[in-house]
């Protein structure tokens, strides 16, 4: 088992963990988005969908547990990397034109990740937590649209939109980066990955973004 | 002094084999008791140090670079010769030997050159096994190209970076031995002196270039692989730090300096652009495979190259040498370029350049083909000159490139000082009066991988291991002399910088001991150089102290030695009343301006002995005996 | 041309450094950047001051000795070249040029712009070679190697070890440097025997030397004077994964 420990603690090992957890989280986002899209089908459809999930709560709980572990793995390794990287660069340059050799999305993963983490905390403590208190009943749609924690509140709406925008930012670099880390950056596969990546960094976040935009800003659903 | 070349008896092709058998061996269990000090870790030094360590010797290696990978061997672009005959164009060991002897204008030893050709094939095998990515064809086999002075394709290459790849190969062998602890590497240390104990080289004094500390190191033998002294000209294709100090300090300790005047001027370099130029950049000789060299027929023609019609251009190499054309050896190409410029046909703003034109090949094979083959060189040219060589011809001019002369060594690569071995460009042995392209890499690696490791055993087996240590008074004495010299340099506190004086020396050397020499100029140089030396010791300014990194101090120490060596070069050139290879004396030329050798009087190696700071050096002759090749006038027509 | 250079001066590794500003006049645009520094140094020496120490040797872009951060870019504003290949025609009259040494914990400053890159050698020492002794190698053409593999190997092998990748990386990661060597040997038949150990040892050594982690910003590729591709990093990741997870 010593080898496993060494592997996971090596620089590449840490990156692999980031990449695996990142890709799994991307997959979770697909499922989450599909669920969210029920909102556009109206209150009844959405409430039915959530109630169906509530009915199989033990399964959902175990998935949530796994998700939590993945999230923690992603965050834990992210923090480890940031600390190690800070230590490796003791003195900063007086002048550094980083924009001429790299993209801003790639240099700000720590920042975008942190904002997404804050979003996650807010999202869990508001919508998710409130959902857990409901048993049956058709209130889920209303919770999402509520004036205090939902898209009835302009601040919440804008916060959600910013977070989704940054999620796109984060995935713009993160998704392809994961495949570089897996070693799949090969001329043969590169173009395929680039196409698939568009789904994750553009379509998926835009899908999420549509919800606060439509229900929060454009007054949809009323 | 009688010079013993120790060339083995027997037929040429069996000399090395029988010599290897006849030499003494060191028992494998005893090898680890011997310590060898290797100074310089370029191709020759790194390959020697690693091979000695593989055999079991203890090795300490020294370099003024931070890493062995920085040595100037890295700059060789074109390739490395070997007699593999893979293209099946009639090459053989004998042909490579013959071309090299002929290319060197019959001023090298037959036996050495034959051995070089013999091991050339092993070098390629060794390098491929090390993972050096030589160019390959689509069948997966090694590709070759042709080079100046040969009519067969025998040059192996790795893009435009052959020297770098070979050095990285030798470096990888060396670090592998560093990893096992058999080689101890001392980065950023410069040799200051060689310590002789009872007439044998047993130690060195070095200066740590970071802390300034002077320290002694004792061993059972000393190997110098410290490169050439081309920087005596200030402007050359050598790296900025390349210097002749190690060789010169050995010379002062009694080692003989052979053929110091044999310097190679490379024909294809980017011309000097400004007075502040610090070095000259080489454009690989391989460009002459596809580029055509020309000048305007009209003197002082100021038109742009593309405005000069075809019939007003003089493709002078093709005209003068129809058989070899643009691929004549370096000395011939260089001298002809100078001649054209002297006659007023030079081009560019300084009129000290000729054109190297790729228009024909671009038209024939397309721009992409050319870019594939020479892209990096073209880019490099454009970055330096601001001109695009795909559109307008390159301007080139000869520049000092390599020194065939060096410390005298016998067949075993040992100098006349027992225990002191000299490898690579630092020795004089294989290239005669002119080196062919792609042969320097071959010689450096031959010496290090395949020759020294055998021959050094013959010496070590006759000595007792670990005989000396640094507590002997000779070390202390030498250390003090080194410190005294450094203090002297720092205390002059004059008005001129080291570079200012170095440029003056370069001017004298280029004008009087350069591409074309004559008696009057050389005699004048022998007066001028000591004057400049005096000026140096009276007026140089070296700021800073000896106990930190001090780059000016390093440069000053090297220049002090160059100022001495320059005079030796001029004396050697004056003595040699003939023209041969890179040594061209204007008094000795044919009506067609070709070099005129004097085989009756000068078929010898001139080995100079230091007789004291104030007395002229004494020359010793080693007669060159040719039993296998007939001395003919080189003809590349 | 006249420029003002703002250069990092530091007496030795223990001292604290600072920027010093010097005007340099009478520059011609044919001069290289280093010839401009030579000019500055000449004038400093004449004033009895210590010249600016900087690493340089071949001055033709191949030895990898030189390297400095110029106006916020490794090896200066032009891509695909080393500092010694940079010429003054790339600057304008009156420019202020900021010159800093490579910054990374694994590259401590020795003096002024000179840094210690022996950490690179120690990584190489851990596995950057094929274990073959001199002599006894089989004929060079005994194993055909496809042109594609040979070209990939050559791409990796063209690394000159200058350290620009580390210097420009926001994490001071040496992944491009290490991967170039790992990649060279991974695609060649000669490198197969030690393939697993090599990547493991070299990555371990890289981590121990205090280099940072790669976060795939690809700044290294953009600044590499030999334009080495980050595809080599991907290959090394793959090699490392395979070496660790296969039996």
Describe the structure.
The complex is a heterotrimer of chains A (222), B (637) and C (247). With 222 residues, chain A is mainly α. Chain A has 9 helices and no strands. Chain B has 3 domains: 12-261 and 404-460, FAD/NAD(P)-binding domain (3-Layer(bba) Sandwich); 265-398, Alpha-Beta Complex (Flavocytochrome C3, Chain A, domain 1); 492-599, Fumarate reductase/succinate dehydrogenase flavoprotein-like, C-terminal domain (Methane Monooxygenase Hydroxylase, Chain G, domain 1, Up-down Bundle). A 5-stranded parallel sheet of chain B has the order 5-2-1-9-17. In chain B, helix 3 links the parallel strand 1 (35-39) and strand 2 (58-62). Helix content of chain C is 34%, strand content 11%. A 5-stranded mixed sheet of chain C has the order 2-1-5-3-4. In chain C, strands 6-7 form a two-stranded antiparallel ribbon. Classes of the chains: A mainly alpha (222), B alpha+beta (637), C alpha+beta (247).
Summary?
The complex is a heterotrimer of chains A (222), B (637) and C (247). Chain B is of the alpha+beta class. Chain B is built from 17 helices and 19 strands.
CATH class membership of the largest domain in chain B: Alpha Beta
Please give the share of residues in helix of chain A.
over 70%
CATH topology-level fold name of the largest domain in chain B: FAD/NAD(P)-binding domain
Radius of gyration of chain A: 20 Å
Q: What Rg of chain B, in angstroms, do the CA atoms define? A: 24 Å
- The portion of residues assigned to helices of chain B is 25-40%
Q: Are there runs of chain A of 5+ residues with pLDDT below 50, and where?
A: none
Strand order of the largest sheet of chain B: 5-2-1-9-17
Can you lay out the helices and strands and say which pair or pack?
The complex is a heterotrimer of chains A (222), B (637) and C (247).
Chain A lengths: L1 H8 L1 H27 L5 H13 L1 H32 L15 H4 L1 H25 L6 H6 L8 H29 L4 H31 L5
Helix pairs in contact in A: 1-2, 2-4, 2-8, 2-9, 6-8, 8-9
Chain B lengths: L14 H8 L5 H4 L3 E5 L3 H13 L2 E5 L17 E2 L11 H11 L6 H20 L25 E2 L5 H19 L2 E4 L2 E9 L2 E9 L5 E5 L2 E4 L20 H8 L4 E2 L4 E7 L22 E5 L16 E2 L1 H5 L9 H13 L11 E4 L1 H7 L1 H19 L8 E10 L2 E2 L12 E3 L17 H21 L12 H19 L6 H15 L6 H21 L11 H25 L23 H4 L1 E6 L8 E6 L14
Parallel strand pairs in B: 1-2, 1-9, 2-5, 9-17
Antiparallel strand pairs in B: 3-4, 6-7, 7-8, 10-16, 10-18, 11-15, 12-13, 12-14, 14-15, 18-19
Helix pairs in contact in B: 3-6, 3-12, 4-5, 5-12, 10-11, 14-15, 14-16, 15-16
Chain C lengths: L2 E7 L8 E7 L8 H14 L22 E2 L2 E2 L21 E5 L8 E3 L2 E2 L2 H8 L21 H11 L6 H5 L6 H12 L8 H14 L10 H5 L7 H15 L2
Helix pairs in contact in C: 2-6, 3-5, 5-6, 5-8, 6-8
């Amino acid at each position: 088992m010593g080898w496993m420990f060494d592997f996971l603690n090596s620089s590449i090992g840490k990156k692999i963990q980031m990449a695996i957890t990142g890709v799994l989280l991307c997959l979770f986002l697909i499922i989450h988005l599909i669920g969210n899209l029920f909102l556009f089908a109206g209150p009844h459809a959405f409430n039915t969908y959530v109630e169906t999930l509530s009915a199989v709560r033990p399964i959902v709980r175990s998935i949530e547990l796994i998700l939590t572990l993945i999230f923690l793995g992603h965050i834990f390794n992210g923090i480890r990397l940031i600390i190690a990287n800070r230590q490796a660069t003791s003195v900063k340059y007086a002048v550094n034109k980083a924009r001429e050799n790299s993209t801003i999305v790639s240099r700000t993963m720590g920042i975008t990740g942190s904002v997404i983490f804050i979003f996650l905390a807010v999202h869990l403590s508001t919508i998710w937590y409130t959902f857990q208190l409901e048993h049956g009943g058709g209130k889920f749609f209303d919770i999402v649209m509520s004036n205090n924690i939902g898209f009835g509140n302009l601040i919440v709406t804008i916060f959600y939109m910013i977070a989704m925008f940054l999620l796109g930012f984060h995935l713009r670099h993160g998704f392809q980066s994961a495949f570089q880390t897996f070693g799949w950056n090969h001329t043969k596969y590169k173009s395929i990955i680039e196409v698939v990546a568009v789904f994750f960094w553009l379509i998926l976040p835009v899908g999420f973004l549509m919800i606060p935009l439509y229900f929060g800003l454009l007054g949809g659903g009323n | 002094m009688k010079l013993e070349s120790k060339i083995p008896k027997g037929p040429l092709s069996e000399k090395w084999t029988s010599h290897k058998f006849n030499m003494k061996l060191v028992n494998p269990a005893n090898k680890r008791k011997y310590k060898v000090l290797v100074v310089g870790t370029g191709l020759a030094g790194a390959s020697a140090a690693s091979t000695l360590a593989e055999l079991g010797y203890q090795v300490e290696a020294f370099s003024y670079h931070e890493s062995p990978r920085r040595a100037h061997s890295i700059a060789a672009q074109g390739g490395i010769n070997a007699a593999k005959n893979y293209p099946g164009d009639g090459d053989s060991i004998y042909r490579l030997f013959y071309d090299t002897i002929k290319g060197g204008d019959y001023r090298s030893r037959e036996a050495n050159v034959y051995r070089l050709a013999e091991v050339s094939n092993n070098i390629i095998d060794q390098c491929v096994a090390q993972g050096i990515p030589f160019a390959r064809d689509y069948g997966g086999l090694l590709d070759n190209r042709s080079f100046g002075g040969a009519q067969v394709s025998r040059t192996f290459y790795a893009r435009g970076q052959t020297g770098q790849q070979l050095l990285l190969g030798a470096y990888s062998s060396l670090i592998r031995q560093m990893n096992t602890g058999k080689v101890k590497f001392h980065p950023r240390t410069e040799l200051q002196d060689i310590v002789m104990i009872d007439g044998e080289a047993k130690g060195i004094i070095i200066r740590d270039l970071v802390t300034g500390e002077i320290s002694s190191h004792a061993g059972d033998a000393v190997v110098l692989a410290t490169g050439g002294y081309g920087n005596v000209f200030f402007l050359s294709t050598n790296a900025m730090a390349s210097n002749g100090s190690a060789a010169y300090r050995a010379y002062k300790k009694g080692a003989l300096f052979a053929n110091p005047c044999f310097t190679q001027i490379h024909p294809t370099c980017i011309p000097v652009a400004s007075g502040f130029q610090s070095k000259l950049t080489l454009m690989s000789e391989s460009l002459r495979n596809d580029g055509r060299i020309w000048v305007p027929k009209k003197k002082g023609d100021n038109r742009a190259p593309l405005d000069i019609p075809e019939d007003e251009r003089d493709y002078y190499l093709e005209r003068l040498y129809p058989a070899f054309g643009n691929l004549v050896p370096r000395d011939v190409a260089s001298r002809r370029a100078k001649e054209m410029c002297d006659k007023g046909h030079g081009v560019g703003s300084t009129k000290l350049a000729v054109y190297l034109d790729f228009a024909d090949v671009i038209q024939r094979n397309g721009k992409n083909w050319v870019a594939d083959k020479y892209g990096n060189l073209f880019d490099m040219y454009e970055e330096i000159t601001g001109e695009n060589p795909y559109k307008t011809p390159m301007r080139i001019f000869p520049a000092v490139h390599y020194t065939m002369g060096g410390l005298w060594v016998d067949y075993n690569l040992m100098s006349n000082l027992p225990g002191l071995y000299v490898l690579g460009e630092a020795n004089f042995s294989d290239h005669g009066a002119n080196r062919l392209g792609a042969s320097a890499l071959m010689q450096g690696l031959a010496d290090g991988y395949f020759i020294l490791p055998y021959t050094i055993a013959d010496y070590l087996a006759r000595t007792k291991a670990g005989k000396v240590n640094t507590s002997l008074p000779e070390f202390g004495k030498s250390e003090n002399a080194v410190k005294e010299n450094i203090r002297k340099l720092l205390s002059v506190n004059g008005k001129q910088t080291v570079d200012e004086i170095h440029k003056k020396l370069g001017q004298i050397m280029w004008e009087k001991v350069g591409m074309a020499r004559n008696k009057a100029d050389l005699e004048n140089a022998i007066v001028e150089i000591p004057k400049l030396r005096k000026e140096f010791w009276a007026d140089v300014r070296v700021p800073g102290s000896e106990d930190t990194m001090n780059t000016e101090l390093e440069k000053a120490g090297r220049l002090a030695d160059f100022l001495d060596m320059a005079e030796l070069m001029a004396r050697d050139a004056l003595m040699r009343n003939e023209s041969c290879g890179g040594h061209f004396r204007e008094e000795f030329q044919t009506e067609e301006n070709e070099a005129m050798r004097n085989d009756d009087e000068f078929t010898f190696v001139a080995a100079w002995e230091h007789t004291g700071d104030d007395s002229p050096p004494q020359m010793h002759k080693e007669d060159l005996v040719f039993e296998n090749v007939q001395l003919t006038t080189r003809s590349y027509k | 041309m006249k420029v003002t250079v703002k250069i990092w001066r530091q007496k030795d590794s223990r001292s604290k450094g600072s920027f010093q500003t010097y005007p340099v006049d009478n520059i011609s645009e044919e001069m290289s950047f280093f010839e401009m520094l030579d000019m500055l140094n000449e004038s400093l020496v004449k004033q009895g001051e210590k010249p600016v120490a900087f690493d340089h040797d071949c001055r033709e872009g191949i030895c990898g000795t030189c390297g400095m951060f110029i106006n916020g870019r490794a090896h200066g504003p032009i891509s695909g070249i080393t500092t010694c290949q940079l010429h003054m025609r790339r600057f304008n009259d009156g420019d202020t040029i900021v010159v800093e040494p490579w910054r990374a914990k694994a590259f401590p400053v020795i003096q002024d712009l000179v840094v210690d890159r022996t950490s690179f050698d120690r990584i190489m020492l851990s596995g950057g070679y094929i274990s073959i002794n001199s002599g006894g190698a089989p004929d060079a053409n005994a194993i055909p190697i496809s042109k594609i593999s040979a070209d990939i190997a050559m791409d990796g092998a063209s690394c000159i070890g200058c350290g620009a990748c580390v210097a420009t990386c926001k994490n001071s990661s040496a992944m491009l440097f290490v991967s170039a060597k790992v990649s060279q040997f991974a695609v060649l038949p000669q490198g197969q025997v030690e393939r697993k150990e090599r990547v493991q040892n070299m990555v371990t050594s890289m981590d121990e030397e205090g280099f940072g982690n790669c976060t795939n910003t690809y700044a290294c590729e953009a600044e590499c004077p030999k334009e080495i591709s980050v595809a080599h990093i991907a290959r090394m990741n793959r090699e490392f994964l395979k070496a660790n997870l296969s039996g």
